[in-house]
Amino acid sequence: MMIRDDRTSEPETGGARRRAILEIAARLFARKGYRGTSMRDIGEAAGVQGGSLYHHIRSKDALFVELHHAALDEAERRIAQAASQQLEPWARLEAACAALLEIQLDPDSLTMPMMNDFREVPATVRTALIERRDRFETRFRDLVANLPLPPELDRSIYRNLLLSQLNSAADWVRPGRLSPRDIAEQIARVFRHDISTG
Amino acid sequence: MMIRDDRTSEPETGGARRRAILEIAARLFARKGYRGTSMRDIGEAAGVQGGSLYHHIRSKDALFVELHHAALDEAERRIAQAASQQLEPWARLEAACAALLEIQLDPDSLTMPMMNDFREVPATVRTALIERRDRFETRFRDLVANLPLPPELDRSIYRNLLLSQLNSAADWVRPGRLSPRDIAEQIARVFRHDISTG
DNA sequence: CCTACCGATCGGTAGG
DNA sequence: CCTACCGATCGGTAGG
Predict the structure, then answer these.
(1) Cβ contacts (< 8 Å) between A107 and chain B: which residues?
(2) I need a surface site. Which of A30, A38, B6, B76 has the fewest CB within 10 A?
(3) pLDDT tens, A105-115?
(4) Which Gene3D superfamilies match (chains A, B) (predicted)?
(5) What Å value separates CA B84 and C1' D10?
(6) Whole-number Å distance between alpha carbons of B171 and A74
(7) Which of A106-120, A167-181, B6-20, B48-62 holds the top average pLDDT?
(8) What pLDDT is attached to residue A6?
(9) DSSP letters along A42-54, please?
(10) Contact yes or no for B190 and A160 at CB 8 A
(11) Residue A176: how many CB atoms within 10 A of its CB?
(12) In A97-168, which ranges are E strands?
C-alpha cells in the first residue's frame, strides 16, 4: 500500500508515523472487516491507546475511505502497467486479471481484499466507496471493448461477471495452494471466447 | 424460506410464532448482515422486545446457524429439482445455475443472500457455516464432472470459479434490470467450453 | 411477553 | 501520546 506523505519530515515522526498507522489499520481492516476492527484494535497494533489515534485521523469512517481510495489508486497503477506490456487484446486482459488477482490474493498487500463487503459500512461511507469503485471498474471497459467476443455475449454483463469473479477469488482460494497466475490463467481460459477461432 | 415446524400447534402460537420470528430474522440478516442486525432490531420487526426473543431461541449465534442451514437445505432441494428436469450436461448445469441465482437474487427469498460474509461472524459460527457450505458445494461436483470440458480447464478450479460467480452475483446485479434467467444464460455461455465443438 | 438491568464494547472527546 | 471518561449499543439474563 502506497500512502502519500505530504509533509517533509524526519523519519518516524509526523507523516511517517501517520503512514505507519494507516498501513496497520489497512491490514486489520483487510483481515477482520470494518466492523470487526475497532479503533482500540488498531491502537493496540500500533502500540498506542485507541483514543490517541485521533491525533492522526479524523474518524474511523474517514480512515477507511482514505485507505480504500489509496488502495484503488495503487491497483489502477499496477493494472495499467501490466496491461501496457501486452498488445494482443486477450493477452492484455489476462495481464490485467493477473495484476488484480495478485493484489486480491496477497494477504500482506494491505491493499484491497476487504473492499467488497459494503454492507457492513455506514451508508455515507458506502456511497463514497461505490463511487470510487465504479470509476475503478471503468478501467476494464476498454479492455473488454477490444475483445473479439461473439455477439451473443453481452459485453456489459461479461465485464461485470469478470470483475466479480476477480473480486471474489479471495473468498475461496486457499493461500499457497494456487498462485495468482494459475488462477488468472484459468479465468482467462474460461472467459476466452473468440468470435472466429474456437 | 421453509422452516420446519416440529410441534403440532394452533395457528399463531408455539411453532408458528417461532417460524414467523425466524423468517423476520432471516430477512434482516440478509439485508444488514450478521453484525448489522441486532437482537433488538429483530424484536422490533417482530413487535416484541429484544430480550423476549430468547424465549424462542437460545442465542444469536444459534439462530444464525439454524437459518443458514435451513437456507442451504432449501437451496439444495430447488437445485436438485431444477437439474433433474434436464438430461444434457450443459442444460443440467444451466438449470442448476438458474435455480441458485433465483435464490441469490430474490430480495424476499429470505434464503441465502448473506451467507457469504463469513468474516463478520464469530469463529465458532464460521466453522459450522463453512462445513455446511462445503457440503452444499459438493452437489455441483457431479454436474461439473459430467461436462465435456477441454483438458486444459482444471475442473476443481472451474467449479470454484462457477460457484463464486453465482454467489457474488447479488453484489452487482441491479434488481429489476436483469432477470436471474438472463444472468444464468450469460454465465452458461461464458462457462460453456465443449471439448469438440467450439 | 415485559421491565429492568448486567458487563462488555464501541467511536469519540476533554484536558493535560 | 496518556488517563479518564461520555453516551450509545450490544448480547443476554432475572424475575415476574
Answers:
(1) none
(2) B6
(3) 987 777 776 77
(4) Homeodomain-like (1.10.10.60), Tetracycline Repressor, domain 2 (1.10.357.10)
(5) 46
(6) 23
(7) B48-62
(8) 42
(9) HHHHHTS-GGGGG
(10) no
(11) 6
(12) none
Region A93-113 average pLDDT: 87
Nearest to A161 among B32, B158, B190 (CB): B190
* Residue partners of A9: CB distance under 8 A and separation at least 6: A15, A16
DSSP-based three-state secondary structure for B146? coil
- Helix then strand then coil, in percent of chain B rounded to 5, is 65, 0, 35
B36-49 pLDDT, tens digit each: 899 999 999 999 99
Burial class of residue A145, CB neighbours in 10 A (0-12, 13-18, 19+): exposed
- Reported pTM: 0.88
> What residues contact B93, with CB distance under 8 A and at least 6 apart?
B83, B143, B144, B147, B188, B191
Beta carbons within 8 Å of A149's beta carbon, 6+ residues apart? A155, A158, A193, A195
Selected for mutation to probe chain B from A28, A186, A187 (highest B CB count within 10 Å) is A186
Nucleotide nearest to B39 (CA to C1'): D11
Q: Which residues of B134-172 are buried (b: 16+ CB within 10 A; e: fewer)?
A: eebbebbeebbeebebeeebbeebbbbbbbbbbbbbbbb
Contact B161 A187 (CB under 8 A): yes
Residue of B101, B125, B164 to mutate, interface with A, max A Cβ within 10 Å: B164
Task: Tell me which DSSP letter residue B54 carries.
Answer: G
